[in-house]
Write a structure and sequence with these properties.
Layout lengths: L19 H14 L3 H9 L10 H84 L1
Helix pairs in contact: 1-3
């Protein structure tokens, strides 16, 4: 607890807030450095050059951290490969659907052309019917 032991070498406490991502990044750097948290924070804030400290404990911490990073990278690579497969599958599906839509569009255009021809024939028939009716009325 802050302020309980005034005879400490460092009796003052400093605290600050960070995001979860920042906390993870800071803790990773602390683990890789091999320093204690307080020493790391002090050195970072005072622009001191930070160097990784050797020794069995520091080496073990570094080894664990490197293994964690390696696992993370393997998982990221696996996720990337899975996403690439999914993207390729979706691209193929979209290409197939686009081709089907283009084929349907061509069929629709052909049907519309035929429809126009039928409408033309219907209009001609109406015209001839009207002419026939007119001629029949004249001949009566």
């Amino acid at each position: 607890m802050p302020g309980l032991n005034k005879n400490r070498k460092r009796p003052k406490t400093i605290a600050f807030h960070v995001s979860n991502e920042e906390k993870i990044a800071i803790e990773t750097r602390i683990n890789v450095s091999g320093l204690q948290k307080s020493e790391f924070y002090i050195a970072s804030c005072l622009d001191k050059k930070l160097e990784a400290i050797g020794g069995k404990f520091g080496s073990d911490r570094l080894s664990v951290q490197l293994e964690n990073m390696n696992v993370f990278l393997r998982n990221a690579e696996e996720i990337y490969n899975q996403n690439q497969k999914i993207i390729a599958d979706y691209t193929h599906e979209i290409s197939t659907i686009t081709k089907q839509l283009n084929d349907l569009n061509e069929v629709i255009i052909e049907i519309q052309k035929e429809n126009l021809e039928y409408q033309k024939v219907i209009l001609e028939c109406r015209y001839f019917n009207e002419e026939l009716l007119r001629l029949m009325k004249e001949n009566k």
